[in-house]
Amino acid sequence: MPLGEIELNSKKYKFENQLLSNINTTYNNVTTNATSQVINCSQYRQVTLGFDLTKVGTPTDITIIVEISLNGTNYTQLTNGPLSKWIYDDVAVTGGTQRSFTFPIACQKIRLKVVATGTSAVNTFTMSNANLYLRD
Fold first, then answer.
1. Are 29 and 120 in contact (CB under 8 A)?
2. Whole-angstrom Cα distance, residue 38 to residue 69?
3. Non-local CB neighbours of 20 within 8 Å, separated by 6+ positions
4. What is the pLDDT along the chain (136 residues), one digit of tens a residue?
5. What is the largest CA-CA distance in the chain?
6. Residue 84 φ then ψ, to 5°
């Protein structure tokens, strides 16, 4: 269900913003991976993924993978060039980083997986403000 509509050049667009609360967490020796909730995107054609990353210590890297489902049941990794996955090492996250990516979408469902390596009780990544903004 769209959260709203905007009008641009006499055309109305539906939009929705979904907070990805399952992946907004600290990745450490206990939590090394997470999967977002499934988002129904069948009525939308554009997606913007946004998130913030910070780190403590020297964790190895964190990978964000976009998965889509054409039938609502079976998921595959989106392999749309550089949009298939993003990998950040601890150097890239020094001082924190904010990222957003916009890409076309044509499927029923979308979800994100996050996998962190080299994390421990003192070497952590924290993802926050992860959300999907969907628009037709």
1. yes
2. 10
3. 36, 37, 51, 112, 130, 131, 132
4. 446 777 778 877 888 999 999 999 999 999 999 999 999 999 999 999 999 999 999 999 999 999 999 988 999 998 876 667 889 988 889 889 999 998 898 899 999 999 999 999 999 999 999 999 999 8
5. 53
6. -70, -40
pTM of the entire predicted model: 0.88
Token pair, residue 14, equals 């539906």
**Which amino acid is it at 105?**
I
- Distance in angstroms between the alpha carbons of the first and the last residue of the chain: 12
Could you please report the per-residue DSSP string of the chain? --SEEEEETTEEEEEEEEE-TTT-SEESSS--EEEPPPEE-TT-SEEEEEEEEEEES---EEEEEEEEESSSS--EE--SGGGGEEEEETTTTTT-EEEEEEEE--SSEEEEEEEEES--SSSEEEEEEEEEEEE-
Q: Are the C-beta atoms of 88 and 46 separated by less than 8 Å?
A: no
Q: For residues 130 and 25, what is the distance between their CA atoms, to the nearest angstrom?
A: 10
**CA-wise closest residue to 49 among 9, 15, 100, 123:** 100
